[in-house]
Amino acid sequence: xxRRPPLSLVRVPSRRPGAFPMVAxxxxxxxxxxxxxxxxxPVSAREAGRTEAPVASGSPVTEVSESVVRVRxxxxxxxxxxxxxxxxLSYLRFRxxxxxxxxxxxxxxLVAQPGILEGAGAFDSVARNTVAAAAASGAHIEFxxxxxxxxxxxxxxxxxxxxxxxxxxxxxxxYYRQKEIDGRKFAGYQTNDQVRxxxxxxxxxxxxxxxxxxAAELPDQRARKxxxxxxxxxxxxxxxxxxxxxxxxxxxxxxDDAGYNQCSGYFALDTRIEKGLPxxxxxxxxxxxxxxxxxxxxxxxxxxxxxxxxxxxAPAVVNTETMNLLAIAGLAANIAPExxxxxxxxxxxxxxxxxxxxxxxxxxxxxxxxxxPTVKDxxxxxxxxxxGLLDDHSQPLAFMQASVGFWDGGKIVDKEFxxxxxxxxxxxxxxxxxxxxxxxxxxxxxxxxxxTWRNYDRVGAPDDPVHKSKDxxxxxxxxxxxxxxxxxxxxLSEHPLDFxxxxxxTRMVADIALAGAPGIADGAVHEGGIAANPVINLQAxxxxxxxxxQPGDVIAPxxxxxDVLTASAVQNDGEPEPISTNLAAFAIR
Length: 589
Prior knowledge:
- By secondary structure, the protein is of the alpha/beta class.
- It has 18 helices and 14 strands.
- The termini are close together.
C-alpha cells in the first residue's frame, strides 16, 4: 500500500441507548419534508430531469452534509410497464460543509454500489466518516451512495411520518391498518405479478444505470477518469468488477466509454472486485434458484411464467415485509431506545411475522418446534429489540450481522438454534461463512425483567456483568464491538433512500450465475478492466472475506459484514474508525 499521510477524525461523543439525544421535532419535520420534496420540488436543478434536496440528519458527524439526488434515466420500452418513479435513478450525496458546491470541483468522488438487500442509506456512517477523514487531511471528497432502480418500489411514507411525529405506532398503522397519512394509503407490498418488469433489470441494466448516472452527473469523461473511484459493499464489489470490464457504446475498439475509464481506482468493502459472489466461493447457490442447473433458457422461462420470484423472497426473514420491519424497528430505537418495545404485539400477527420471530428468537430446537416461549413472552427495550434483529450474537445470517454491543438486564444463555455454538468442535466450521463467527446468545427469562442493550462502547465497562457462554468464555469483549446501535437505528430510519432493499431483483444473481451464457454479460469484453486501476480491499476481520485474507488487505479486527458500513467514527480503543480512515487516504492519494 505504501506510505500514506496521517489522518484524523473529528472525535464525537458516543451515544448510548440510554443517552441518545432526541432530534428536535422541527429537524425531524424538515427531514420528512426534504424527503418528500426530493421528487416533487427540486431545490437545485442542473437541467430538467434532475432534482437535489437536502436531507436533515441527526448524525454526530455534523460537518458532513447530505442530499438526495434523482436523475431521470428512463428504462427502455422493452422493460415493460412500471411506475413512473422507476424511470429515475437516485443516490445520496455526502460532502463536507466546507467543500465545493459542485461535484465537478471536488477532489475525488467515491461511487458506491450496495450489496444484496441493501439500499443507499446503509452507507451513511462510512460515507460521513470517510468525507470527514479526508477533510481532516485537507481534501474535499464526495461519497455517492447509489440506490438500485428497484428501490423505486418502496413506500417510506409511514417511517418518515413516524420520525416526524416521534410515533412508531403511526408507521405501523400506515403499513398494517390502512391509516392514511396526508391523504395517502399504503398500497400493500408488491406481488410477483406487479413487479414483472424487474425480470428485465439484471446485470446489464444495473451496470448501465451506474454508467448513465455517472455520465449525466459528470459529463466530461476525462474528469470522471480523474476524479471518480468506483466500488461497493458485498455484491457491490461484483457489480464493480463487471462495470470495469463493460463496453458501453457497443464498440470494443473505442475505450473512452469502457467502465475502467470512468474510474481512477476501485474500493471493496468486505468484498472483492471479482466476478463472483463473496463468501460463497464465488458461486450463486443453486438452492436460491433451482432452475439454474438447467441453464439460461429454463431460467428465462421461470421468470416469464413467474415460477421464479422476480424479487428475491422467502416465506420469512428475507422478504419485502421483513426488510421494512427493520426500518420500523430502527425507527422505534431511534425515537425511544430505552422505551419498552411493543412491536411484536402491536404489529398484527401473520405467518411471516410469527415465523420470522420464531426463527430469530428461538433458544434451541425444542423451543422452535414447540413455538414456546415466543418473543412476545419477553420484555425488551427498543434498542434491545433492534440488537436482537441484527447483532452478530443473535442474527443467524452472516451477511446481515453487525457488532453493536450485547444483551443486558437479565439472564443470558447460549442460543443454539439454528446451529449449536460449538461448530468447530463438531467439524462444521465451514458453516461460519453462512452463520457468522460469533457464538449466539439469547435472554432466558420469559415474563421476567426488562432486557436492555449494552452499547458497543459499554462492553467491558466496570458495570459490565460479562455474560458467559456455557463453556465459561465471555460471549464478547470490547475489541469485538464496533457499531453504535443508536447510529444504526438512525441510519435505518432517517434517510429518504432506505437502508434496506425491499425488492432485490432475482434476475441479478441469476445473471451473475449464468454470465457465461450468450446474451447475459456480452458487454464485459475489456478483460483487463479490473487490473487497469489500483484497488483497496477493506475487509471485516470476522466478515465474509475473513477466511481468505490477501496481501495488501486492510483488515478491521472484530468487524462483521455490515460493520464496514456502520462502525462508529471512534472505536473502543480511542482510535479513528479504520475502514473510513484508510478509504479516505486511498481516495486522496
